[in-house]
Amino acid sequence: MRPAFVTGGSSGIGFAVARQLAEKGHDIALFARDQMRLNAAKASIVARFPHIRVETFAVDVSDQSAFVAVLERALAVLGTPEYAIASAGIAEPGLFTEQDIDLHERHMAINYFGSLYFTRTLTQPMIEAGGGRIGLISSGAAFFGIYGYGAYAPSKFALRALAEVLHLELEPHGIVTTLCYPPDTDTPQLETEKRTKPEATQQITAGGGLWKADDVSATLLKGMEKGRFIVTPGVQMGALNRLTSLIAPALRWHQRRIIRKVGK
Prior knowledge:
- It is found in: Endoplasmic reticulum.
- The protein is of the alpha/beta class.
- It contains nine helices and nine strands.
- Helices cover 54% and strands 14% of the residues.
- The longest helix has 29 residues, at 235-263.
């Protein structure tokens, strides 16, 4: 059984994915910025599944040369992954006129380019190994523009486009590409997101409920195992995926109503 590589693997959805893949018998490579959190994640997995090998790699996924070097080291240590899940990401809401260009660039660097470096480095080894499964984590913000997500949403739109291309190009090589659109999920990232989220954005995004990371992970892995391209945990994400082009005008009207209300 080949290993699983997971970015953002020290917390949230990434950690849940890693833990569930360890339960299935896969050795794990965890990638994240904070070595202490990586150590804690490793200890938690090994305590439950002592037969599983867990390797940790502290790296900023937006640093191309450093990230590629770390991925190549992980390949040398564990071998080519069967599962490659890019879960590292940031979300810092705010108004377009109030956010620095640097923040826009950082969202693209982590959310889009981090996933690009990850998949580009691993694709050829996976092809040579006979295939595999790639999981990319998008967002409901990739379906339509949401007030307050000027920096975040474009990075997820870009990731969606990349996933659509990978799905077509890699399928003949035995690689399944799965794009997941999780709803709001109870993770440390969501708590960070709340600190800068405008009031109107809070109201606009409040109707989707709150999912547990374990439930999102289980839905994602089930979809990957079945070879699905799109995975939409929950009724709301499923409806957005199927009906965005039809309901986008109504969703924009709903946002404008909330924005006017908050502005009074």
